[in-house]
Amino acid sequence: MSAPESPAYTELFDHLKHTALLGSCAHLLGWDEQTYLPSQGAELRADQMAMLAGMVHERTTSPRVGELLSQLEADGGLGDETPVSANVREARRTYERATRLPQKLVEELSRVTTLSQQVWIEARHQKDFAQFLPWLEKVVALKREEATAVGYGDGSPYDALLDDYEPGMTAATVQEAFTPLRNELVQLVQQIAGSSRKPDRSIITRAYPVDAQRAFGRQAAEAIGFDFSAGRLDEAAHPFCSGIGPGDCRLTTRYDEHYFPQALFGTLHEAGHGLYEQGLNRDDFGTAMGHSASLGIHESQSRMWENSVGRSREFWQHFFAPAQRAFPTVLDGVTLDEFYRAINIVEPSFIRVEADEVTYNLHVMLRFELEQPLISGDLPVADVPVIWNETFEKFLGLTPTDDAVGCLQDVHWSAGLIGYFPTYSLGNMYAAQFFNAAQEELGDLDEQFARGEFAPLRDWLRTNIHQRGHQYQADRLLEVVTGETLSHKPLTDHLKHKFGQLYGFE
Amino acid sequence: MSAPESPAYTELFDHLKHTALLGSCAHLLGWDEQTYLPSQGAELRADQMAMLAGMVHERTTSPRVGELLSQLEADGGLGDETPVSANVREARRTYERATRLPQKLVEELSRVTTLSQQVWIEARHQKDFAQFLPWLEKVVALKREEATAVGYGDGSPYDALLDDYEPGMTAATVQEAFTPLRNELVQLVQQIAGSSRKPDRSIITRAYPVDAQRAFGRQAAEAIGFDFSAGRLDEAAHPFCSGIGPGDCRLTTRYDEHYFPQALFGTLHEAGHGLYEQGLNRDDFGTAMGHSASLGIHESQSRMWENSVGRSREFWQHFFAPAQRAFPTVLDGVTLDEFYRAINIVEPSFIRVEADEVTYNLHVMLRFELEQPLISGDLPVADVPVIWNETFEKFLGLTPTDDAVGCLQDVHWSAGLIGYFPTYSLGNMYAAQFFNAAQEELGDLDEQFARGEFAPLRDWLRTNIHQRGHQYQADRLLEVVTGETLSHKPLTDHLKHKFGQLYGFE
Q1: Which ranges of A101-154 does DSSP label H, i.e. alpha helix?
Q2: Does B21 contact A at CB distance below 8 Å?
Q3: Which residues are bridge partners to A235 per DSSP?
Q4: What are the distances in angstroms from CA B146 to CA B35, B140, B167, B423?
């Protein structure tokens, strides 16, 4: 009798699928909270979410799960790197992490991060870090407790947090890739700043009617293959993609009439996440094989469609004519190349989510630089604004004018998401490595984009990444797909080539 | 120690509130299913809903609930007609009904009605009752089983079904009110048909732009007091109001560019339901005191705002000028009276949901006439089309041209909602009785409407009906508020007066 036919396997995965189904209800409620919930419904929603989270946690930590896992592991015969062994491996990882966290800590984290997000909103609004300080201190203290509870072997406490978002990844590995990446990027930013070519930014800040943006963004998402019969596109203040479950994946974006890139590239970004979710095997819902491999791998998909595809010249060889039809008054008389240069302006700025393809990773690395000593205890929370600004100056050559555009700009810390930021830049590096592998196998990707053909890349990603679910950890998946280990080089090569051409110094 | 302070009361209502919170998650998912769910997400949604329904049922029938109820009832001291006694009474009623239904019957009803709704859609589309017949036979058989399981004392099996929607109501009481109502209405319809006055229907079938309808409908819902900070208005194929829970009540409507009354009166109707939900005491969520009294009382609120208010001449004294501004091309040169007559055209037609204020109740009574013998077993399901058409001819003087506009028009039977229809006409009768009581107490309601003042009526309803929740059963609430028992007379007096004036025979 093979493992998948054993009663223990069946019982375990019936249990986990039921838990996932309960989680999918919470995902829908979470989506609704960000899109359509009336303001007075916030309290009810908090109660609903807390209840569902409690029920999911109870099911996740049920002792029966531990018994079944031990039985399956003792029985053996799971195979090496098989889907079945991956399902058991991840069920074990999830169970271990959940059971190591004391119920009291889980509840305290939930309570404190809910409240601290409210304080953060107000503090950012008032540009007043002092208001947020006691709450950030509480969050950091609780996350340090979490790291201790989870454990981190010979590594650093930061590893225990990172592992929640990027299973198996360590701070040391991240650091190894980030250091050369940063050096190359700082130099590239300086080269670009020194270039005499100055693209015309006004092209993308003219009045682009929101209704036309909405239709154009949907058209682009459809073109790259997002299936609207199994998904939606709505508006949210903080855009996201939510894979509710099989057949239901929801994207959000936001529209700024006077800043064209925001909604369109945001839509392509979220649609990239969405293609991953839609590419997972429906029947594997509730198991590792039906789940994404990591946040970094997820981000590699969104960044690839946003940047490698959406900000390429070839994409616009195909889409610029439709864009001119969609926005006739603003794009009349603009050439393809002027437009291409405008959507690829590189310029150090304060806000991460508005940063260009080159400077973006510097924003991420700054956060990684601060998070590690915060969690090790080497950086007192009160010193965050000073260190933030110093590091910002070092990485980007600018000093934030206030904390609202400095260390108060992101929601993550107030929400307890420490260890999450590195996955953004890991995603960018993975994306470049995956893209090279795809290019090698599929040939003239650029020419395909110019003809409006996105199916070959999408299908390649589906086969090589999406349908593999969480069969492998991220580093192993990278190896299986590209034959390489994590490297900054494909990303910096791409950026140096692209922006060297754009700014005339290649 | 009074009952509300006893540990049993606390434990029971903590349990019931938790169950209600779980139910509120299902309500949100149900709303989403009708508004925004992508088509491929239907299977996941069915699984989610079945899971939540199962969990709610399990909590509802928990033996501990029975123990706590028995303890509270034995302790006594609940008081007479107090909120506490109402909470215990309704908890007992819900518990009894739920525990009397065998789990197998509950599951079979859920399975059969889910499938039979699919068959019904197809059968209606193909105008083919034969296709639906075996499924309707199954549904009727299961509903008969349900009636037997629930029990009905000395009454009829139909009582057991009716009681689910209109607690305490019996078929005999409904019949007693319906018989004179029908006689009066049949006569009134004939008088109207004989009138030489023929309103200009073309006024309401011109092109009313949907965007303008949307804005105008929202404006009207806001004017009568629907609070959009605690609710929403969206679109759905089959409009409804869903009270998700405290602070979150969602209305839906549908737009027909060439039939103005549909969206607007639909919106006022659902907003009437919404005002009831928004008028319930937030703190009583999960108890009888925080719940509507019955579907009939609910319908009295929607019908009052739709008809007594929305289709009154005074409402349009206030709203016709805004309507002319919102729809300048179609309403240019139309007088208030021409418009008022057009939105109040009485004309027998096949479809219940499109029927006017006078003929609507005849549609409802036709269904009541058929449902009783279906449940008693006196009417074979196969005979439904013939009996439907005969009765339709008798009540409305028309014979349906096919079953799609005849016995296949409503979703209710396929969904197992037998015993539900009477609540629509009960609602109309209650509405007329409540409205007279309000008028007596508040004086010149008509003049208030003409000035655009709807707060006095709304506040009166809030105090006298909404905030009382389910303290009383419907008949007792009617008595407490109006001093009367159920009667058709206020409704027929209103209709005879209004349409006598409109059609010139009063």
Answers
A1: 103-125, 129-150
A2: yes
A3: A253
A4: 31, 10, 16, 19
- Spatial distance between the Cα atoms of A344 and B324, rounded to a whole number of angstroms: 49
Instruction: Quick: pLDDT tens for B265-287.
Output: 999 999 999 999 999 999 999 99
**CATH, range B171-503:** 1.10.1370.30
Which H or E element spans position A245? Answer: strand A241-245
Report helix, strand or coil for A231: strand
A to B CB pairs, distance under 8 Å: 100
pLDDT one-digit tens code per residue, A409-454: 999 999 999 999 999 999 999 999 999 999 999 999 999 999 999 9
3-class SS of residue B83:
helix
Q: Which residue has the tokens 């023929």?
A: B198
* One-letter amino acid for residue A57 of the chain: H
- Report in angstroms the alpha-carbon separations of A317 from A271, A323, A329, A336, B71: 20, 11, 19, 7, 77
What are A62-115's pLDDT values in tens digits? 999 999 999 999 988 888 899 999 999 999 999 999 999 998 899 899 889 988
Angle (deg, nearest 10), helices A360-376 and A422-442: 140
Nearest-angstrom CA–CA distance, B340 and B343: 5
Distance from CA of B82 to the nearest CA of A (A): 27
Q: Is B241 helix (H, G, I), strand (E, B) or coil?
A: strand
Nearest-CA distance A341 → chain B (Å): 37
Distance between A221 CA and the closest CA of chain B, angstroms: 16
What string of H, E and C letters represents the secondary structure of A394-449? HHHCCCCCCHHHCCCCCCCCCCCCCCCCHHHHHHHHHHHHHHHHHHHHHCCHHHHH
The two tokens of residue B8 are 């049993």
Residues 230-249 of A with CB under 8 A from B: 230-232, 234, 244-248
Report residue B45 as tokens: 């949604």
Q: Give the pLDDT score at B2.
A: 63
Q: Is A90 a catalytic residue?
A: no
d(CA B340, CA B313): 6
Please, is A214 exposed, middle or buried when counting C-beta atoms within 10 Å of its C-beta (0-12, 13-18, 19+)? middle
Within 13 A of A183's CA, how many CA atoms are on the CB side?
A: 7
Across the interface, do A43 and B246 touch by the CB < 8 Å criterion? yes
Q: Among B58, B248, B252, which would you mutate to test the A interface (most chain A Cβ atoms within 10 Å of its Cβ)?
A: B248
Q: For residue A41, list chain B residues with Cβ-Cβ distance below 8 A.
A: 230, 244-248
pLDDT digits (tens, 9 = 90+) for A281-309: 999 999 999 999 999 999 999 999 999 99
- Is the pLDDT at A2 greater than 80? The verdict is no
Q: How far apart are CA B216 and CA B416, in angstroms?
A: 36
Contact (CB<8Å) A38/B245:
no
Structure-token pair, residue B316:
């349009």
B452: alpha, beta or left? (left if phi > 0; alpha if psi -120 to 50): left
Nearest to B21 by CA among B290, B303, B216, B286: B286
Q: Residue type at A327?
A: F
- Could you tell me if the ipTM is greater than 0.85? yes
pLDDT at B237: 87
Which amino acid, A313? Answer: R
**C-alpha to C-alpha distances, A147 to A101, A150, A170, A206, nearest whole angstrom:** 9, 5, 13, 48
Domain ranges of chain A: 1-100, 171-503
Local structure of residue A483 (DSSP, 8 states):
S
Collapse the DSSP code of A206 into the 3-class scheme (helix H, G, I; strand E, B; otherwise coil) and give the result: coil
Q: Are strands B231-235 and B241-245 parallel, antiparallel or unpaired?
A: unpaired
B115 pLDDT tier (thresholds 50, 70, 90): confident
Q: Which of A28, A37, A56 to mutate to test the interface with B (most CBs of B within 10 A)?
A: A28
Please compute the mean of the pLDDT values over residues B118-128 and round it to a whole number: 94
Residue that the structure tokens 């909604």 belong to = A263
